[in-house]
Amino acid sequence: MQFTKGHGTGNDFVILPDPDNQLDLTPGQVAALCDRRRGLGGDGVLRVVRAAKHPEGEAMAGEAEWFMDYWNADGSFAEMCGNGARVFVRYLVEGGLAIPAGQAPLPVATRAGVVRAVVDGDTVAVEMRRPRVYDASVATLGGLTLTGAAVDVGNPHLVCALPAGLDLGSLDLTRAPEFDPAVFPAGVNVEFTATGDPVDDVDGHVLMRVYERGSAETLSCGTGACAVAAVALRDAGRDTGVVAVDVPGGRLTVTLTDDSCWLAGPAVLVATGDTLPPTP
Description:
Subcellular location: Cytoplasm
CATH superfamily of the largest domain: Diaminopimelate Epimerase, Chain A, domain 1
GO molecular function: diaminopimelate epimerase activity
Catalytic activity: (2S,6S)-2,6-diaminopimelate = meso-2,6-diaminopimelate
Helix content: 10-25%
Pathway: Amino-acid biosynthesis; L-lysine biosynthesis via DAP pathway; DL-2,6-diaminopimelate from LL-2,6-diaminopimelate: step 1/1
Keywords: Amino-acid biosynthesis, Cytoplasm, Isomerase, Lysine biosynthesis
CATH topology of the largest domain: Diaminopimelate Epimerase, Chain A, domain 1
Structural class: mainly beta
Order of helices and strands: EEHEEHEEEEEEEEEEHEEEE
Distance between the termini: 15 Å
Largest sheet: 13 strands, mixed
């Protein structure tokens, strides 16, 4: 089994080329590949399949050649992964599977629909649906209960701002936060945020940690950064703008327009090789 390892601000993935959808990949194999002690290690698996060859991608084959078959580290499926999409595009371009036409966006099919990406040197920016802030809910972490905003970015998020005096680094994210299953029946990614110092050329600066559904705490979450930016702009009384989101793995820049959301940051390929098909 061929693989490539890549990451976007520390959010890391095992990339499996499977253009004709011939790998009989199972949830147990995905979990084994993502195991950081017994496997290759990763927050998830990106399987590279031609859209026309995948049952969930064939309806989008007229818009995008490639389908991002994304799996969480525990072997479950996810609708969308912003950093994963950026790393996926880096792999397509560096592997010669796609050639960007200048700055024309490169389309990629996902379970959340077709997204578009632009490669500019070390940075890959992906255009996704505009986040929808739609409800309020709570998350409980240890003895701490926080009110947050429910956000749809193609996948579910709960953005919880920390009260003054509580340090973001003090949170224990070794356990999953509790949430309301009536609001999030399919589970949820929970983001914890604090306001950052002012940064030039942006409209807001937010610090973020995240517990991802199916992957535990990760160093970065692209769709989570988009959700956080949408809440930050809403709280500032704005519908559009640019927000710098600092995660443990680095900085992402989120730009909200009237009808879309651009997520930008570094996307890096670090290794390639062969591995035996894992035994769960």
